[in-house]
Design goal:
Blueprint lengths: L2 E7 L3 H12 L6 E8 L2 E8 L2 H7 L9 E8 L14 E2 L3 E9 L2 H10 L11 H13 L3 H10 L3 E9 L6 E6 L4 E4 L6 E4 L11 E4 L5 E5 L2 E5 L11 E2 L15 H7 L1 H9 L3 E2 L2 E2 L14 E6 L1 H18 L2 E6 H4 L10 E7 L5 H12 L3 E6 L5 H5 L2 E4 L12 H20 L5 H17 L4 H10 L8 E6 L3 H16 L3 E5 L15 E6 L6 H13 L3 E6 L8 E4 L6 H22 L18
Parallel strand pairs: 17-18, 17-19, 19-20, 20-21, 22-23, 22-24, 24-25, 25-26
Antiparallel strand pairs: 1-4, 1-10, 2-3, 2-4, 5-6, 6-7, 7-8, 8-12, 9-10, 9-11, 11-14, 12-13, 15-16
Helix pairs in contact: 3-4, 4-5, 7-12, 7-13, 8-12, 8-15, 13-17, 14-17, 15-17
Bound molecules: 2-deoxy-2-amino glucitol-6-phosphate.
Length: 605
């Protein structure tokens, strides 16, 4: 999704902006641009496609001395991915970059057209440029025109604006889309970014702007105002300078690195939470669950699959009623919300628009809310009453892997926590689960033998007219997740299905060109799942079975380890489906980390 960077200072602003945009590449984009302003002169470069096009285009441009600059990676929403639609958007006197959506841009555009302004792009962003220029004709100061401009915008935005007449200043505003200001306290340089990544290594402290906040920066100074125009004291948070974790460390792709990291980040997620005889969360008190008799889990994409898988654990272990919601459906379906429901938004990024809007709805209905999220200070974390962080570290691959793994671990622990505080579980059972939790890091270590086998096998799955990932119980949401992984990065058609449902329709598709990836754990519904696989085999579907037990009728077989409990099998099979999708995509020559049409953080609905 779109990304923003900004810089004010003496250093090479072009390089800093391009480096910042590089850090945001993983979020997905289809065009990019930068503007640098020095002594009343704008230098602007835009290009379609990957960042190297922009680097190439701006190669001969050199910045000398103090400058202000803004940059943007665009993921098309209004208008095609063309150079004209790429940001920054420009007028006579200002250049603007913007994330989010201006909902009333049609009305504003109409008024501005009537006043004689010309529009070159099809974007909603361009109205901001002309609105500022129009307001500047009547307002006493540029600050006042900026304030007036943002007060006329409806929708979500994070925006930066450069004004030709003020070459020492960057204006900013935030409403509904993330925006961070970074400061190097020694040099007085100011940085902007729509997420932490471009700021790491450059600044030591950051301000996570709140909705409604706006203002401007100059060298060593930040002027911050709230919605009503009252000056507010900036709240600085420290930012680590360690860039190492953001690099690939010799892996072919970030996704591969992140799959290999799962064992470690799961250990991190367990740390201090799995204690001698139970589960502890510093972030929450048992009283959070007072009066609660239903848990509503809400997410999108992979995070929705976590929700669905967790439903099995919550009902089975915590004995609490569970409902599971897609953020994009929940927010529009007038759900019945009563105060006995605990609302749990699940999100890697903490910025997913549909999950965030669902959370706002739950809050407005007076529900207690508890986020499960990977990004501290993200919008979802800030808005929720409480939050449990998943400690996956920065996830760069668009296809989520380690975030899913750590979400699953947190929700499994949460199910146990509820069971424990409600005395719904014996100490013996709890001890057994604690033991399983401690075993998960082992179960998710990528075994070289297994990876090699999957790598070899992947060459047989590069064609065909479709894939069915099937499983039962908690392995059904895992099948959904396996199918999502494969389609995201291989662009092959894949569906996840409950194994027992195939005979109610989809089995009609069975033929040798239909590939079935069957999840066959030994500790839950083994015989039932086996029969479902045999039904498909009998219709000549090509079958790849993933199981600890050999399956003689399978065309291909990936052997997993014998575990005492199905949850450990779940985590090992999770790694298998992730690797399989990745190896298929690599063989197909796709960009695994930045698949087409997708964005890492989906901040529009
Ligand atoms: C995962 O592989 C996907 N790229 C996508 O489905 C993602 O999980 C979804 O957009 C939700 O994101 P979130 O967890 O950041 O809210």
């Amino acid at each position: 999704m779109c990304g923003i960077v900004g810089y004010l200072g003496e250093k090479d602003s072009k390089q800093i902006l391009l480096d910042g945009l590089k850090e945001l590449e993983y979020r997905g984009y289809d065009s990019a641009g930068i503007t640098i302003l020095q002594n009343g002169n704008f230098s602007i470069y835009k290009s379609v496609g990957k960042l190297h096009n922009l680097i190439e285009k701006s190669r001969d441009f050199k910045v000398d001395g103090f400058s202000v600059g803004i940059g943007h990676t665009r993921w098309a929403t209004h208008g095609k991915p063309t150079e004209t639609n790429a940001h920054p958007h420009t007028g006579e006197m200002v250049h603007v970059v913007h994330n989010g959506i201006i909902e009333n841009y049609q009305e504003l555009k109409k008024e501005l057209l009537e006043k004689g302004y010309s529009f070159y792009s099809q974007t909603d962003t361009e109205v901001i440029v002309h609105l500022f220029e129009e307001n500047s004709k009547y307002c006493k100061s540029y600050l006042e025109s900026f304030q007036k401009t943002i007060s006329q915008l409806h929708g979500a935005y994070a925006l930066l604006l450069l004004n030709r007449d003020e070459s020492n200043r960057i204006y900013f505003a935030k409403e509904g889309s993330p925006l961070i200001i970074g400061t190097d306290t020694e040099t007085g340089e100011q940085f902007f970014a729509s997420s932490d990544a471009p700021l790491i290594g450059y600044v030591d402290s950051v301000i996570y702007l709140q909705d409604g906040e706006w203002g401007y920066v100059e060298q060593g100074k930040i002027y911050l105002y709230d919605k009503d125009g009252k000056e507010v004291e900036p709240k600085f948070s420290p930012l680590s300078k360690d860039r190492a974790s953001a690099q690939k460390d010799g892996y072919r792709y970030f996704m591969e690195k992140e799959i290999y990291e799962q064992s470690q980040v799961i250990s991190d997620t367990l740390m201090g939470r799995v204690v001698d005889s139970g589960i502890e969360f510093d972030e929450i008190e048992p009283s959070l669950f007072d009066g609660i008799d239903e848990v509503k889990l809400c997410g999108c994409g992979t995070s929705y699959h976590t929700a669905l898988a967790s439903m099995y654990l919550f009902e089975r272990i915590a004995k609490i009623r569970v409902s599971v919601e897609f953020g994009s459906e929940f927010r529009y379906r007038e759900p019945l919300l009563t105060k006995n429901i605990l609302f749990i938004p699940i999100s890697q990024s903490g910025e997913t628009a549909d999950t965030l809007a669902s959370l706002k709805m739950a809050k407005e209905a007076g529900l207690k809310t508890l986020a499960v999220c990977n990004v501290d200070n993200s919008s979802i974390v800030r808005l929720s009453d409480k939050a449990i962080l998943t400690r996956a570290g920065i996830e760069k691959g668009v296809a989520s892997t380690k975030a899913f793994a750590t979400q699953m671990v947190v929700l499994y622990m949460l199910a146990l926590y509820i069971a424990q505080i409600r005395n719904n579980i014996s100490q013996e059972e709890l001890d057994n689960h604690l033991h399983i939790l401690r075993e998960i890091p082992n179960a998710t270590i990528v075994q070289p033998r297994l990876h090699e086998k999957i790598k070899r096998l992947s060459k047989r799955y590069l064609h065909g007219h479709g894939f069915f990932f099937i499983g039962r119980d908690i392995f059904y949401p895992l099948a959904l997740e396996g199918a999502l992984k494969l389609k995201e990065i291989s662009y092959l058609h894949a569906e996840g299905y409950p194994a027992g449902e195939m005979k109610h329709g989809p089995i009609a598709l069975a033929d040798p060109e239909l590939f079935t990836i069957a999840l066959l754990p030994e500790n839950v519904l083994y015989e039932k799942t086996k029969s479902n696989i045999e039904e498909l085999g009998a219709r000549d579907s090509t079958i790849c079975v993933i199981s600890p037990k050999p399956f003689e009728l399978a065309d291909d077989f990936i052997q997993t380890s014998h575990h005492k409990h199905y949850i450990l099998e779940f985590f090992e099979m999770m790694v298998v489906v992730q690797l399989l999708s990745m190896e298929v995509a690599i063989r197909l020559g796709n960009d695994v980390d930045m698949p087409r049409n997708l964005a890492k953080s989906v901040t529009v609905e």
